[in-house]
Amino acid sequence: AQSVTQLDSQVPVFEEAPVELRCNYSSSVSVYLFWYVQYPNQGLQLLLKYLSGSTLVKGINGFEAEFNKSQTSFHLRKPSVHISDTAEYFCAVSDGTSYDKVIFGPGTSLSVIP
Amino acid sequence: DGGITQSPKYLFRKEGQNVTLSCEQNLNHDAMYWYRQDPGQGLRLIYYSQIVNDFQKGDIAEGYSVSREKKESFPLTVTSAQKNPTAFYLCASSSQVVSGANVLTFGAGSRLTVL
Questions:
Q1: Mean pLDDT for the stretch of residues B11-17
Q2: Which of A2, A72, A73, B77 lies in the 20 to 30 Å Cα band around A103?
Q3: Rounded to whole angstroms, how far apart are CA atoms B112 and B38?
């Protein structure tokens, strides 16, 4: 069965500093990978997705992620964070074979300190 | 603008009462989902529906019921049988049009508190 691990439950970072949010998955088949962002008391919004092709994926708000098949990782990065990036970030994986097979990680809470 | 509307945003319920959460989408998506979110646990799938008049149980369906009479609507009923219903509930939809990937669009959520 697929699973998703987000190694850091909370990440504090100073404004304008770089940040990396880690995500590892376990799957024996080809996967699709996603990062979603959730602002307080709101739904989730898609940040970026990896479907195929280039392993470096660029998303909205200056975020990017790199798919590493050998390490089964899909870490999210931003070179310079802003106060408005404070939110919960979820990594998710899907094998695309069934509507119910989207597995979410537990989330990482990013707090940007002014 | 196309999107998903969930109502109510906040709901309080006494123990033993059933409540129904509304979810409406105008994205023309075939599939709709209900997730439950608890702090530190990510999202867990309650029910999903691929087409009208058909739905499937997810990982935590006990104590919940759904219906899918129209493509646009997928209401969730939290019954008195649900042992711990206080949570944030998220409705989502998807259209598997991009290489078979399941890209989800979410509503703003409904927060249910049992008093």
A1: 90
A2: B77
A3: 11
* CB contact set of A57 (below 8 Å; sequence gap of 6+): A48, A49, A50, A64, A65, A66, A67
| Adjacent-strand bridge partners of B48 | B33, B56
Residue window 71-90, chain B: list those with CB within 8 Å of chain A: 90
CB contact under 8 A, B106 and A90: no
Give pLDDT tens digits for B83-112. Answer: 889 999 999 998 765 556 778 999 999 999
Chain B residues closer than 8 Å to A100 by CB: 45, 48, 56, 58
Cβ contacts of B97 within 8 Å, gap of 6 or more: none
Structure tokens at B94: 């998807």
Nearest in space to A96 (alpha carbons), one of B49, B71, B52, B97: B97
Residues of A in contact with B92 (CB under 8 A): 43-44
Extract the tokens encoding A101: 């097979």
Cβ of A99 and B31 within 8 Å? Answer: yes
Q: Quickly state the pLDDT bin for A82 (edges 50, 70, 90).
A: very high
Counting beta carbons within 10 angstroms of the beta carbon of residue A12, is it exposed (0 to 12), middle (13 to 18) or buried (19 or more)?
exposed
What digits encode the pLDDT tens for the residues B43-89?
Answer: 999 999 988 999 999 999 999 999 999 999 999 999 988 888 999 99
